[in-house]
Amino acid sequence: MSEEVTYADIKFHDSSKTENIQEFDQLGIKVYITLKTEVGKLNELQNFKEELQRNISIQLMHNMNNSEKIRNLSITLQEIATKLCHELYRNNQEHKCKPCPKQWIWHEDSCYVLLEGYKAWQKSEKICSSHNASLLKIKNKSVLEFIKSRRLRAYWLGLSPRKDYTPSKLLDETIISSDWFRSNTNDLINGKYCGYIHDLYVYYDECTSLKNAVCEKLANPVKIESTLMKEVPDGGM
């Protein structure tokens, strides 16, 4: 009788172990399936992320290309407006597209004004400064030919004052000079000599002498809308 009980007990315990193993296997399968599912989702997210990054990169490149095209188009429009304004300026020197103040002369990318009224060199320089300009400095052949065509007489130039008298020379020889004025002179010592233009020559005279002056400053960019848009007649809608 005791052997049967013992066998039954052993059989019972073996049955419990088998059930535990089966439950463990089932749990393992569930864990495996869960992990596999999550790994699949993670891979999908990774693929989505990579695809999103590719799309963003493509969009950024597209935007950069568009920005470059827009920039190039703006430059082209500005060049067209400037050329057109030059043509309009030839017919009407006070056309609204002119990038210089009234009474100023426009040449290439600069504005020039002739100040008639005899003043000392230092006073003339200060007057130019009050207009955010400076006394004329001729530094290239285009400006040289432009100024020669004006046939100016007794106009101060933006040449640095000199201690000693300097003989006159042709205006053509001045553009290669390193003597162009570079800074303000607050206290001009009497006895110095300043350069001025007279016809096709540059002369030097005492800086306290009285002469006219010609100022220059950088022209503003031509406004595209003021050039390309058709003017509305007075009284028009």
Key phrases:
237 residues; Mannose-Binding Protein A, Chain A; 8 strands; eight-stranded mixed sheet; 49% helix; 4 helices; alpha+beta; elongated
What does this structure look like?
The protein folds into two domains: 1-98; 105-218, Mannose-Binding Protein A, subunit A (Mannose-Binding Protein A, Chain A, Roll). Strands 1, 2, 3, 4, 5, 6, 7 and 8 form an eight-stranded mixed beta sheet that branches. The chain is elongated, with a radius of gyration of 43 Å. It is 49% helix and 17% strand. The longest helix has 90 residues, at 2-91. The N and C termini lie far apart (123 Å). A hairpin with a 2-residue loop joins strand 6 and strand 7. Mean pLDDT is 80; it is low at 231-237. The chain is built from four helices and eight strands; from the N terminus they run αββαβαβββββα. With 237 residues, the protein is of the alpha+beta class. The protein has helices spanning 2-91, 121-130, 141-150, 224-228; strands at 105-107, 110-119, 134-135, 153-156, 169-170, 193-198, 201-206, 211-218.
Q: What's the helix and strand layout?
A:
Layout: H1 2-91, E1 105-107, E2 110-119, H2 121-130, E3 134-135, H3 141-150, E4 153-156, E5 169-170, E6 193-198, E7 201-206, E8 211-218, H4 224-228
Parallel strand pairs: 4-8
Antiparallel strand pairs: 1-2, 2-8, 3-8, 4-6, 5-7, 6-7
Which structural class matches the secondary elements? Answer: alpha+beta
Under CATH at level 1, the class of the largest domain stands as Alpha Beta
* Main sheet attributes: strand count, strand direction, barrel closure: 8 strands, mixed
Taking the alpha carbons of the first and last residues, their distance comes to 123 Å
In DSSP terms (H or I, runs of 4 or more residues), the helix count works out at 4
Radius of gyration equals: 43 Å
| CATH superfamily grouping of the largest domain | Mannose-Binding Protein A, subunit A
Strand content: 15-25%
- The third-level CATH topology of the largest domain is Mannose-Binding Protein A, Chain A
Low-confidence stretches: 231-237
How many DSSP-defined strands? 8
Mean pLDDT: 80
Work out the count of structural domains: 2
* Helix/strand order: HEEHEHEEEEEH
Describe the global form: elongated
Helix coverage percent: 40-55%
- Per CATH, which architecture of the largest domain? Roll
